[in-house]
């Protein structure tokens, strides 16, 4: 609403005073009260002779009031920016801390694995039985603990060995050992306890024996069914990502 030069704003946003007319104007919700005040002011003004003509009447509510300037839209944006920047910095620090924690867990697992390799002398201290070829002694999903030394392999031992052209090691029992006098080595024949025939059909083409260098380790103990998670991740690779995500959530929850 245009107030005109003779009108002055009061400290109350719903009131303003007309200095020349001697009236108070307000919002409609307070109209009955102000009408009564205006009537009294007009009556007093018309009967008074002490005021010169055309001199505006000054009432207690007729003082200047200017609202505090907050800086407009730019000031508001600066205020919001100052509030958001510390929150953003805190979030970045939190993400970095969680990433470092996850990296430390993975590094610790790798260090433990390398330590087991040194202690056992085997490049694979733990293996999972993937088939039923060694039943009833070992079942699918059992974990075998291996060690390796320079002593000659004996018949009856359970060994884990590599075969040329096969990416997955084999866990079977040694059934024959023949010493070679020409090379001072040993010819070794293996077989699964649950198989009818020896492993010559599993060896590389034309190979009848395996040698000491093919053996990765000798079984010294086992943990029943503890390797089923590894089998599940091998058969369903999506479980690997689920496990990694669960590990990440566990790290986040532990930090909170």
Largest sheet: 6 strands, antiparallel
* DSSP summary: helix tally: 4
Name given to the CATH architecture of the domain at 123-224: Ribbon
Percent of residues in beta strands: 15-25%
The helix-strand sequence is EEEHHEEEEEEHH
* Rg, Å, rounded: 46 Å
CATH class of the domain at 123-224: Mainly Beta
On the 0 to 100 scale, the average pLDDT is 75
**Low-confidence region ranges:** 1-6, 53-69
CATH-derived topology of the domain at 123-224: Umud Fragment, subunit A
Helix coverage percent of residues?
25-40%
CATH homologous superfamily annotation of the domain at 123-224: Umud Fragment, subunit A
Number of strands: 9
Q: Kindly, what is the distance between the CA atoms of the first and last residues, rounded to a whole number of angstroms?
A: 55 Å
Q: Judging from the principal axes of the Cα atoms, what is the shape? A: elongated
Strand neighbour order, sheet with most strands: 4-5-9-6-7-8
Secondary structure category: alpha+beta
């Amino acid at each position: 609403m245009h107030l005109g030069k003779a009108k002055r704003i009061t400290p109350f946003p719903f009131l303003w005073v007309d200095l020349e007319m001697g009236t108070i104007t307000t919002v409609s919700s307070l109209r009955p009260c102000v009408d009564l005040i205006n009537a009294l002011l007009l009556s007093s003004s018309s009967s008074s002779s002490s005021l010169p003509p055309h001199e505006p009447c000054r009432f207690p509510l007729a003082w200047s009031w200017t609202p505090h300037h907050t800086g407009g839209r730019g000031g508001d944006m600066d205020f919001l920016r100052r509030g958001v920047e510390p929150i953003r910095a805190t979030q970045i620090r939190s993400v970095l801390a969680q990433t470092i924690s996850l990296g430390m867990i993975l590094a610790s697992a790798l260090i433990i694995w390398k330590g087991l390799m040194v202690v056992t002398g085997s490049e694979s201290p733990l293996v999972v039985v993937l088939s039923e070829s060694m039943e009833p002694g070992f079942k699918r999903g059992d974990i075998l603990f291996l060690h390796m030394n320079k002593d000659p392999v004996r018949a009856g031992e359970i060994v884990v060995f590599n075969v040329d052209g096969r990416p997955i090691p084999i866990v079977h029992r040694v059934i024959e050992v023949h010493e070679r006098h020409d090379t001072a080595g040993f010819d070794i024949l293996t077989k699964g306890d649950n198989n009818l025939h020896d492993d010559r059909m599993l060896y590389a083409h034309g190979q009848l024996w395996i040698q000491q260098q093919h053996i990765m380790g000798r079984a010294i103990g086992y943990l029943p069914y503890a390797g089923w998670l590894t089998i599940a991740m091998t058969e369903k690779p999506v479980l690997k990502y689920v496990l990694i995500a669960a590990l990440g959530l566990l790290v986040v929850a532990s930090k909170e």
